[in-house]
Fold each of these.
Amino acid sequence: MKNRKWLIVAGVVVAALVAVMMIPRVQFVMGGAMVNIGYRFQDHLHEYDLEHHEDITPTQVWDEFMKQNEMAASVRDTFPRSTRHPLVALLVCMDARIDTSELTGDTRRNYYIVRTAGSVIGPEEGDMLDLAVTNGVKVVVLTRHSDCAAEKAAKDPAAREKYPALVKSVDEREQRVKEFLARPDIAAKIAAGELLVKELVIDTATEHVRPDTH
Ligand SMILES: [Zn+2]
């Protein structure tokens, strides 16, 4: 009799857990948490890693890259992913410390991601973001981040000489944002309330964001 009571309690607990797991918000958060578990498995590895092998040759790096792709892609063959229609376009620096899936807590490709050194907007990026808006994007997020190598280069005389195109883009960043906002389709959609363009600064260490007040 006592055993039966515990079986019922266990059954109720399992049913409650299953019910909670069916809640979309719970599934979303758990998916993000599992991605983080993946990072936890790999982050501390130094042996199986391209970055920390100072004496590794370019050919070895290439071979390793191809091997890792083959493994990862074979998983995707087995578990095909869903495709989404992005409503958000993000412009983010190419800095490898920033992970856009972690930044958004979302791995479902709900975002168009444009990555450039220093989060600069060149003519091509302006066109790409405009095209993304034409394809249905409702929010464009232009980001910068702390400890940015491109912004540091723009402040260093030797680097300014060595990377003139990059530092010019960093210098002109605010002006180029204004030009993007003034593009006819972009300006019209903003005026009609069909598009938001936001500027954020990413904390590189924590990936928290705050409004970019320049
Ligand atoms: Zn950067």
Amino acid sequence: MLICLCNGISERKIRQLAREGASSWREVARGCGAGASCGGCRRAVDGLIREVRSELEAVEPTSASAFADDSIAPSPA
Ligand code: FES
């Protein structure tokens, strides 16, 4: 599905950039142009970024939250 009609950018491309680390519509715009023209898709782009980050966080908790559990903390050297 196209998210950015001005530049013909798909949801798939935006999700890919978010998985690769894009954290704002501006970063997505730098990567593919989505959001760089009329701006009508920026909220949708930001929403997709939030979705992808939530999905990644559910699969791969940050190291900070992983080490909150003492049972998996590294042993002292
Ligand atoms: S719809 Fe994305 S910049 Fe216009």
Amino acid sequence: MHCPSCEHRLVAGQDRCDLCGFHLGALDARYGGQDVAMDQITDTTHFLRTHDRDHLLDSMDAFEDQFPQLHPAIYIAELPAKTKLPEFATWLINRARVSVLDELRQSENTYLFVIDLTSRSMTVTCGYFAEQFVSENDLRELLEDASPYIAAGDLREGLGKLIENLRLILRRNYRLLLKSMKPGGPLATRDPGTLAKPLMDTSE
Ligand SMILES: [Zn+2]
């Protein structure tokens, strides 16, 4: 995860940016200190038509069949003008409690897409576990590819592209990772168990 204010890289559990001093608690002060109950798709505006939503849920289920430990989630809202989307998304991934069929999803395993209908823009933020499988470039490409559709209000096409392209990127990166972990590869001694870190200490 990156500091939403200066984009400095934060490590797991770090809630204050050591470069600019930004504190995640400041986001609670701005957006609220309570958890946000979410589904796989949370559309606070009821913008998506039922069959578009069902179509997207099918793609998301297919994604999770392939990557059972990784979960895309979508949040659609009309945010107040001048909302800084990266900040809002950082706050939301720390506050979101995504449940599917009564099962609570781990935020660190989530790719959260936030669509703001006010500015017709979007962003993606990743939990600490999920982010290690995609590069900054991957995420930039993802957003660039879907942005024209979101800007035009074609959420079905834009969100469909996001989910499908994320799946393709992960498949490609996963193959590269497997290759690198083979004997003699650069990650041969890396223990995959150490990759999972909590997104944020919630014990306070
Ligand atoms: Zn910062």
